[in-house]
Amino acid sequence: MTPNKLLTRVFLAFTLASSLLLFHNSQAQEAAQQDTTVTEGSNDEQPAAQGADSGLPTDADRISEGQSLFNANCKTCHKVKEKLVGPALQGVYDRAPSIDWIVDFVHNSSKVIASGDDYANNLYQEYNQTQMTAFPTLSKDQIINILGYIKQEAEKAPEVVAPTEGAGTAVQGAGDGVPTEYLNAIMIGLVIVLVLILVVLILITTVLRKYLNQQKDLDEEDREIVNASFRLDAALKSKPFLFLVVFITTAIVFKVVINNLYAVGVQQGYAPKQPIAFSHKLHAGENDIDCNYCHTGVRISKNANIPSPNICMNCHSMIKNVAGQSGVSPEIQKIYDAIENDRPIEWVRIHNLPDLAYFNHSQHVEVGGIECQTCHGEVQEMEVVRQHSLLTMGWCIDCHRKTDVNTKGNEYYDNLVELHEEQSNEALKVEDIGGLECSKCHY
Amino acid sequence: MNIYKHIKFASLFAVGAALTACGAGGENQGLEYAPNMYHSVAYEPLKQITDESAGNMAELLDSNGDNHGEYYNSNPLNPYRMTMRVPPANVVPRSDKGYLPYRIPKDSLDLAARTLKSPLPKTDDVLAGGKLLYDRYCDHCHGGSGQADGPVADKYPGVANLTGAAYQNISEGHIFHVITWGKGLMQPHGSQVKPEDRWKIARYVKKLQNQ
C-alpha cells in the first residue's frame, strides 16, 4: 500500500463582491416578479381608453423600419411581452396618456418626469427610479413606426418556442443514435457473411471428399490424405503451435508490463467527477466564451485560476436553466447555494504537476503565445475535462526542443538572435534560450 | 519441472494484471512512484489536502512530530481550512501602474461619464490591445461588431447594441464605469478586468461605434 490515492482539492476564495452581488440579484428578482404581475394587471385595467393607437401604421415598410429601430435601440431594455429592465411594451400605445406623451418620454424622459406628470412619476417609482435613456435623435415618425412594430408583434400568437425545441431534440437524437446503430448493423452483417462463408467451405470440402473417394485411380497415400481426420489434441501438442502460443503470450505480457510501468506517475486521462456538472462544451464551445473570461489569472499569474462564483453570476444571475427548460437547474442552484452560505465550491484539481517542477501559465500563454488547446486539448469539446497531455518531463522537453521563440518586435532578443545566427542555420528554439536548463524548472 | 514453468507464466500474468491498475483514467488518478517531492510543504493556492493521514508512509522516513501525514496541507486557521487567505478588511489592491481601486459608486454614472478621462495615449497599440481584450471579455454577448449578436445574447436578455443611437455619444468614462459596475442587466466586471484593460476596451468600443 502506498499513500498515493489522494484527491487534492481546489478551493475557491470568494471575492468580497459576492455578497453585494447576491443582494443586488435577489432584489432584481423580486422586482421582476412583482412587475410582471403589475404590467399584466394594468393591461386589463386600462382598455384602449384614449384610442390613440388608431394612428399606428400597418404597412410592411414602416413596420420593418420600426423593427430595425426597435432591435437597434429598444431591445436592450424592453421586450414586447415580458418585462426586462423596462416594462413590457405591448399595449403601451393604449395605456400611455397619448402618442405625443410617448414621443416626449422617449426624447427625454427626465424632462417629462420633472414636469410633474403623474403617469411618468408613477412609472419612475415603480422601476426603482431607473431612468430611461434619452433618444433625442428618433423622430416622431420613427417612434410611431416602432409602436406599429410593437403592436404587430403583440398581436402575434405565441407559437415561436415549440418548434425550435422540437428541432433541438430531434437533432440531438439523430446525432447520438445513428452512428452506433449503423455500426451494430454492419457488425451483425459481417458475422452473418462470415458464418455463411464457413458453411459454404464445409459443404465444399465434404463434396470434394465424397467425389475423391468415388475415384478408383487414387493411390494409398492420397487416399490417406483425403480421409485424414483433424485431431485436436495432436495439433495442440505440436511444436510449432506451442511455440506460437508461448511467443504471443510472452510478447503481450511484455508489452503490458512495459506500458504500465511507463504509466506510473502519469495522470493522462484523469477525469474526475466535479461537484458541479460544469460543461466546457456548452460554455466554451457552443457559447464561445473565451477561456480568459473565467480563467482570469492565465495571462498575469502562475495559475490560470478557477473562477469564483461571482464570475458565474455574470450570466447565471439571469440564465437559470439549460435553454428551453423552466425552473432552476439543480447544478446552477449549487452556485446560488455556495454564494448564500458563503462556502467555497470544492472543485477537484485535475492537473497535478509535482511540486518539484515549476510551471508558470503567464510565461507560456502571454509571453510564449501558446494556445490553451496545445496542452489542454480541445477543452471546448469536453463535457467533463480530462488531462489531455502527459505532463511528464520528456513531454515538456520535447516541446522546448521543437518550439520556435517568437522574437519578432521584441528588442530583448535582438542580440541573442544575432549571436544564434552566427552559429546555427536553424531558427531560435526555446532550448537555445535556456529551455533545457535544469534550474529553470527545478529549484 | 513442468509445474515450475507454469508458475513462471502465471506470475508473469499476475504482474501484468496488477500493473494495469497503474494507469490513470476516469476517477482513477493512477499510481505514483515515491511521490515524496510531489506535494508542496508550503501552502499553495488552488490546492489543498484535507486528509490528515495523507502521506503517513512518507512521514516514517522524516518524522517531525506534527501528528499528521507528510502531505497534509491545509490551514486550520482559515475558514474551511483554505490555504488561500482572505485579505484583511479595508485593504485595497494597487496595480503596478499605480492605479488605485475605482471609487465612484455605481449610481453615479453621470458623474463618471462627465469627469473621467482615459489615461491612455491615443495610439494604435492601445486600440489593438483593446480589440484583443474586447474579444476576450465582451465578444460573446455584445458580438464582434458590437451589435449584440454574440452567441450568449440569444439566451441572456437585455444585451446592449453598442452601435445603437443611445450609445453613440457616450464617453469613454461612461464605458469604463459600466464595465466596472455593470448597468441594467449587465453584471459588474470590475473584478475580472484590470482598470487599464477597461480603458483599452472603452477606446475600442468607441472605435466600433464610429465605424
UniProtKB/TrEMBL annotation, chain A:
Biased composition (Polar residues): 32-45
Gene3D superfamilies in UniProt: Cytochrome c-like domain, Cytochrome C3
Transmembrane segments: 182-208, 241-262
Domain called Cytochrome c: residue spans: 61-154
Pfam family, one: Cytochrom_C
One of the record's GO molecular function terms: electron transfer activity
UniProtKB keywords: Heme, Iron, Membrane, Metal-binding, Signal, Transmembrane, Transmembrane helix
Region feature Disordered, mapped onto this chain: 32-62
Superkingdom classification of source: Bacteria
Residues spanning the signal sequence: 1-28
Protein name per its UniProtKB record: C-type cytochrome
From TrEMBL, chain B:
Name of protein: Cytochrome c
Keyword Iron among record annotations: yes
UniProt-listed InterPro entries: Cyt_c-like_dom, Cyt_c-like_dom_sf
Pfam families tied to this protein: Cytochrome_CBB3 (PF13442)
SUPFAM superfamilies, sorted: Cytochrome c
Domain Cytochrome c: 124-209
Phylogenetic placement of the source organism: Bacteria, Pseudomonadati, Bacteroidota, Cytophagia, Cytophagales
Signal peptide bounds: 1-20
Keywords annotated in UniProt: Heme, Iron, Metal-binding, Signal
Source species, domain of life: Bacteria
GO molecular function, one term: heme binding
Classification via Gene3D superfamilies: Cytochrome c-like domain (1.10.760.10)
